[in-house]
Amino acid sequence: MKKKLETQVVWVIYFVGFDDSTDDAESIVQPYVGKERIESAGTPEQIWYEANLAVLARGGTLLAFVTEDEIHAEAMRQANEAEILWRR
Fold first, then answer.
1. Is the separation of the CB atoms in 7 and 40 below 8 Å?
2. What is the C-alpha separation between 63 and 33, in angstroms, rounded?
3. Which stretches of 1-88 are assigned E, i.e. beta strand?
């Protein structure tokens, strides 16, 4: 019987705050702080690579990793959002 690989869940908090598209109204990206669930059975280095790839695919910048549950990840996302977007 094959041993089942244990997966680790990591929440990634990221910021998208720039737009390199044209200036028409339909293509403008509003700045936001998002979170993404990453599930991996890999090494910490592989998880780091997968997280960076997920953030890059969204055009963002990595802010934090959260290894707790989604509630804690959402609290971290909101705290980062308040710090970046609302306290300028």
1. yes
2. 9
3. 8-16, 32-40, 61-66
List, for residues 41-59, the tens digit of each pLDDT value. Answer: 888 889 889 999 999 998 8
**24 contacts: CB under 8 Å, gap ≥ 6:** none
Query: In this structure, which amino acid lies at residue 83?
Result: E
Cβ-based burial of 15 (10 A; exposed 0-12, middle 13-18, buried ≥19): buried
Q: State the pTM of this model.
A: 0.79
Contact predicate 53/14, CB 8 Å = no
Rounded Cα gap, residues 11 and 35, in angstroms: 7
Instruction: List 32's β-bridge partners, or say none.
Output: 16
